[in-house]
Amino acid sequence: MKIELSGRTALVTASTAGIGRAIAQGLASAGARVILNGRSTDSVERARRHLLATVPGADVLGVAADLSDAAGVETLLAGLPKVDILSTTPASSAHRTSSRPMTRPGSATGIPT
C-alpha cells in the first residue's frame, strides 16, 4: 500500500530515536513535511540528519523542547506551522521526576485498564 502525504505537515513528538523516529521516517517517506521533536538540540539535529540521509529530499524541521513542562510546550507551539498530522510518542520514562507510579483514573495500578 502506498500512502501519499505530499502537502501535509506532521509533528512527531519524542522522535529522536526508537519508534518516534521510525514514525517520522515513514511519514517523510510518504511525502509529508516532518517536524521532529526531542529534549535537546543535539538529539534533534542528529535525528534530522539521520532522516535526511535515510529519506533523500525529505522536508524535515526540528524543534528542541521538553514537553513535560509548560515552557517546553510553549517553545514547541511558538514555532509550528499548520500541522495536519500529530503523532505523540511518549518519551523514555527515565526522565520522569516523580517516583509515584502513573495511573489511569479508576485504576489502582499503573497498568492501563
Structure description:
By secondary structure, the chain is α/β, with parallel strands linked by helices. 31% of the residues lie in helices and 16% in strands. The protein has helices at residues 18-29, 41-54, 70-78; strands at residues 9-12, 33-38, 60-64, 85-87. The protein has a four-stranded parallel beta sheet with strand order 3-2-1-4, sandwiched between helices. Helix 1 (18-29) links the parallel strand 1 and strand 2. The longest helix is centred in the middle third of the chain and has 14 residues, at 41-54. The radius of gyration is 15 Å and the shape is globular.
Structure summary, number of beta strands: 4
The profile of the biggest β sheet is: 4 strands, parallel
Helix content: 25-40%
Structural class call reads alpha/beta
* Weakly predicted, low-confidence segments: 95-104, 109-113
Broad shape: globular
Question: Reading side by side through the largest sheet, how are the strands ordered?
Answer: 3-2-1-4
How much of the polypeptide forms β-strand, as a percent range? 15-25%
Using the CA coordinates, give the radius of gyration.
15 Å
Q: What is the mean pLDDT?
A: 85
**Helix-strand sequence:** EHEHEHE
| Count of helical stretches | 3
Report how far the terminal alpha carbons are from each other: 33 Å
From the structure above, extract its key features.
single chain; 113 residues; alpha/beta; four-stranded parallel beta sheet; 4 strands; 31% helix; 16% strand; disordered C terminus
